[in-house]
Specification:
The chain has 8 helices and 8 strands. The chain is of the alpha+beta class. The chain starts with about 25 loop residues before the first strand and ends in a 7-residue tail after the last helix. It binds adenosine-5'-triphosphate (2 copies) and magnesium ion (5 copies). The site of one adenosine-5'-triphosphate has 15 residues, from strand 1, helix 1 and helix 2. Its main location: nucleus.
Length: about 260
């Protein structure tokens, strides 16, 4: 048959929907583990935070950044990761379905292949997989708000989960623990941890409190212009990305 040009099958192309993402916007792919509540139970993740599972997620995200050079930044917490593509990316001509499917497939495969590296003592009992979507954000302010939103979510969930699991580990059953903290404010939870468990929430590891950022390091000159791209490498860290400080020091990431 003819591979292209008019033939009797050509009309089938017209059933495909256009899903090209808006130009000049930052494309974010957010993926999330499917049924990881169950998956983490089945594989006996430590609660509330299994550090090896987080390190596995981070290693997969790092591999994604190394594979897709147009991704300039990634932020991850729990079973989710957000990948920010540069504003000018023309990857797959900005077709959403191709960008989503290749990113999430690559990440999923890494997660499965690297499992034994992080859990040498545990066999995979089911096949972990992830869903994903794309969202376009049109300004640096909005991209920053997006990332801040995910980090605020990390904080709220982690503080709740830390409190919940401390109560459970101290002998309460799950519904008692839930009742005790269901209408508590952030400050109340901080005090429960401090007074009942002598635990200072602010001293917990940053990877739990702040989530993880993945970026390509680039040495910057005084104008914030990256130099020495060739010597750059992908690094993982757990900074605050809500305030201005990180973004002042890392101006090259959202430069446009
Ligand atoms: P869905 O398929 O709708 O995303 P889900 O079960 O994955 O359902 P999420 O809201 O994504 O629900 O929550 C992920 C859950 O996975 C957490 O609530 C937690 O129980 C578990 N989990 C993920 N990562 C870890 C980790 N590093 N340590 C402990 N538990 C984890
Ligand atoms: P794209 O990333 O755009 O999909 P591509 O190189 O994968 O680019 P396709 O049009 O998908 O291009 O074509 C797949 C190519 O892979 C085929 O042209 C062929 O060369 C090769 N290929 C795939 N399956 C086989 C196979 N079973 N045996 C030999 N070659 C294969
Ligand atoms: Mg989901
Ligand atoms: Mg999930
Ligand atoms: Mg999730
Ligand atoms: Mg193709
Ligand atoms: Mg192909």
């Amino acid at each position: 048959y003819q591979r292209s040009g008019n033939n009797k099958y050509e009309y089938l192309k017209s059933f495909e929907v256009e899903d090209k993402l808006m130009q000049s916007t930052w494309v974010v792919v957010r993926l999330d583990g499917r049924c990881f509540h169950k998956f983490s139970d089945k594989h006996e993740f430590e609660k509330p935070n299994d550090e090896r599972a987080l390190n596995l997620m981070n290693a997969c995200a790092k591999a994604v950044l190394e594979e897709f050079p147009d991704i300039i930044f990634a932020y991850g917490v729990s079973d989710e990761y957000s990948f920010v593509f540069k504003k000018t990316t023309m990857l797959y001509n900005r077709r959403s379905s191709d960008i989503i499917s290749t990113t999430v497939a690559f990440f999923t495969l890494c997660y499965n292949m690297k499992w034994k590296e992080f859990f040498p003592d545990k066999d995979l009992k089911s096949t972990p997989s992830f869903d994903a979507r794309t969202v376009c954000y049109p300004s640096t302010k909005i991209v920053r708000d997006y990332l801040a939103w995910r980090q605020v979510d990390c904080h709220i969930n982690n503080q709740y989960n830390t409190c919940f699991w401390m109560l459970v580990k101290s002998g309460k059953n799950k519904s008692e623990a839930q009742d005790e903290i269901k209408s508590s404010r952030s400050q109340d939870k901080y005090e429960i941890l401090l007074k009942q468990f002598n635990m200072n929430y602010n001293e917990l590891p940053a990877i739990f409190r702040k989530g993880s950022c993945v970026e390509e390091t680039a040495k910057c000159n005084d104008n914030g212009q990256p130099v020495e791209r060739l010597t750059s490498k992908v690094v993982i860290d757990h900074p605050d990305i809500i305030g201005d400080e990180f973004w002042v020091d890392h101006r090259h990431i959202l430069k446009g």
